[in-house]
Design goal:
82 residues, mainly alpha, elongated
């Protein structure tokens, strides 16, 4: 079960307990309660957008770290040449 799909599953569970839902989706109750806390106030589109932004942010952080590392390497090489 993806995080944002919890919103849909919990809305559509139709009388099923959280324990039954967890067994069906093979996730722990702790995970479900964490998802509910994190995504419970959102609709599915908002949750998907949040995940998309988190992935994009992570990728941008990696790109920045790589760029900073390249700059340090180039500075070190330039210092050795002088």
């Amino acid at each position: 079960m993806r995080d944002e799909s919890w919103i849909q599953s919990s809305a559509d569970r139709g009388g099923k307990s959280i324990q039954d839902l967890c067994r069906e989706e093979n996730v722990s109750e702790v995970t479900v309660h964490r998802w509910k806390k994190q995504f419970g106030h959102m609709d599915i589109n908002e949750a998907r957008r949040l995940k998309e932004l988190e992935r994009e942010n992570s990728e941008l952080k990696k790109m920045l770290a790589e760029s900073l590392l390249k700059n340090r390497v180039l500075e070190a090489v330039c210092e050795k040449k002088l």
